[in-house]
Amino acid sequence: MKLDVVLAVVGVLGVMVAAISAKMRRLPISEPLLGLAAGVLLGPHLAGALAMPPLTVEHTLLHEVSRILLAISVMAVALRYPIRDIRPRGRDVVILLIIAMPVMAAVSAGLAWAILGLPIAAALLFGTALSPTDPVLASSVVTGDAAEADLPARDRQILSLESGANDGLALPLVIVAIAAAGSLSAAEAVGESLWQILGAAVMGALMGWLGGRALRSGEKHGATAHAPALFFTVVLALGILGIAGLIHVDGILAVFVGGLAFNRTGTGAERAAEVPIDEAVNRFAVLPLFVLLGAALPWSQWGELGWRGPVLVLAVLVLRRIPIVLLLRRPLRLPMPDALYLGWFGPVGVSALFYLTLEAKRIGVQDTVLAAGSLVLVCSTVAFGVTGVLGRVLYRRATAQGKQVTQLGDSAPS
Hints:
Order of helices and strands: HHHHHHHHHHHHHHHHHHHHHH
Radius of gyration: 21 Å
């Protein structure tokens, strides 16, 4: 019965999204927001048609669905741009990965400790789970005709590649937090981190290379000449994710590396730009997860947070990312409007759900950690869904005014 309800809701929402797809990117709504709202309306606290236990009680289903969605999403990121466009962004992405992501984890952990009074270990679990920039929510602001018209390619590429890479590279931070909680020794944490990251990189690169060679061979002999690349890359992403699970390496990172290797080996610059996987992920694949999440929200645990819940949400959304991107503006060579845009649109989303449920699965975490993390996740989904269009408009106006000032300065008599 539960599966039938989810399928029916996703089908109806999918038709709605398809019907208004041309206008979606110009409205203050997003596909995750639609799915979340539908799940809340049908959940046990309102219509009761989708009876899901709260996230703090049962999280296995949400963890597995989020894992699959992230795999498809980071594969989309790896194929979104030709390799020749990705190479120049490597320096900027590395700066965000090695500086911004750990600082975002530390800031979020500090806020949870200061506002909620969590123990240091629990605060670290909260902060590291929220540290990665989510590729699912980020995709809604960097893809589509409106984004391409309003935002420079460099900003869109930086945000996309950062969100794809840090989803997997956040795992060592999470392992450190698990070790701080007493479940691993320092040596065990280092060993697991090295195996998870290096094993994922090697396996992902190998599978991506093999997939690319297979596609080229199929095209050469006519076997895949008319097959949509979308289906091939989704199957490849799921295959890499499954192998990663069997050998216990970072599956999300393995899929991202595999996608880059596939992009380089199998698609070429022209085909990579034509792969339509982004729109499929943004418009349809996100719907089942957010419907389930909306029905599993821990409303009673949110109420127990009291005034601290809204204060924490506001503090995380404002302080987690914007200040550090502004401080990195010079090494990233970002004008102020670009730094503000990339600082705000670095959302907490599906990746946070994945790591929160991973922590709960491995060691069990306080209900407060899951409740607070899910509250930030939901508010982030709402905030970025509502402000997506407004952010582009403000950015466009700010850059236009900057150009006018520059032109006036150039034309002024010396």
